[in-house]
Amino acid sequence: MATNSNEILHDFSPLIRIYKDGRVERLEGEDTVAASIDPETRVESQDIAMAPEFNNVSARLYLPQNAKPGHRIPLLVYFHGGGFVVGSAFSPVYQEHLNSLVAEANVIVVSVNYRLAPEHPLPIAYEDSWLALKWIASHSKSGDGPEEWLKNYADFDRVYFGGDSAGGNIAHNMAFRFGTEELHGVNLNGIFLNCPYFWGNDPIANEAGRKGEKNFLDNLWFCICPSTTGLDDPRLNPAANPMISRLGCKRVLVYVGGKDVLKDRGWYYKEALEKSGWAGEVTVVEVEGEGHVFNLSSPRGANSLSMIKDLARFLNRN
Fold first, then answer.
1. Is 260 a known active-site residue?
2. pLDDT of 18-51, one tens digit each?
3. Checking DSSP bridges between strand 251-257 and strand 281-287, what pairing results, if any?
4. Which residue out of 45, 91, 165, 304 is catalytically annotated?
5. Which of 56, 69, 78, 214 is the most buried (most CB within 10 A)?
6. pLDDT tens by residue, 208-265
7. 172 belongs to the catalytic site
8. Which of 38, 128, 164, 260 is catalytic?
9. How far apart are CA 224 and CA 125, in angstroms?
10. What element of type H or E holds 257?
11. SS3 breakdown of the chain: % helix, strand, coil, rounded to 5?
């Protein structure tokens, strides 16, 4: 008997619905905007597609107005959020966020457009992101990468990874991989995790009283990562990784929203790093009264602007 195309297999509203016939309906994160020179900040952006050996991963690059060839500025590799299932590097939400950050911090940004689950289940997003990092590293002194902005402006001694929600998860996992594998020509100074998507099997702190959200996040992980070992998979729960002390940087900045169900995982991440013997500095900033990735829903709000300034200082601290 044919499957009714309207029968829902998984409902992860407000992100996606997956139907029994295999169809995926994305409920948000589908809008895109062209690369441009931003009229307010004068930040310039351009889109690139990496070579076939880098799986044709695409990205959007951002360059501040006052960049001068030969004058090296910090490089931030950014990973967008969206639960691994929605969003892109070409979203107007990220265009506005990164234009503001680049103008404030005077950094060059590569915003990576990894493939999405469930059509491309994890670990594909991680592999796409690592290939993007290898492509970026090919522009360091020891490489022959083709992108002029990276060759002329990026300081590969001052590289940072960052992201929000699922992108924060990716930034952590890339930093851990950086600490266990070589990426020639790159010095990873730090990572910025905004409301990172970390989770675990056993509820901590206030999670026990938020059963609906826990069920949602539990089920989402099994859907996007069918090969997982469970909710304490170290990629989802870094505290369960016995080698977390090998995180490949010495500075970590974590932002959490006071009303976000993921808030306690940000604090738990700090605790796990400090207990592991990792020889670095981790700071968690909890913004009272704010929800998940509050800066994206209210980019002109006082707390969002304060976060941009704080992140700019983080990226420029020697």
1. yes
2. 999 999 999 999 999 999 999 999 999 999 999 8
3. parallel
4. 165
5. 78
6. 999 999 999 999 999 999 999 999 999 999 999 999 999 999 999 999 999 999 999 9
7. no
8. 260
9. 10
10. strand 251-257
11. 35, 20, 45
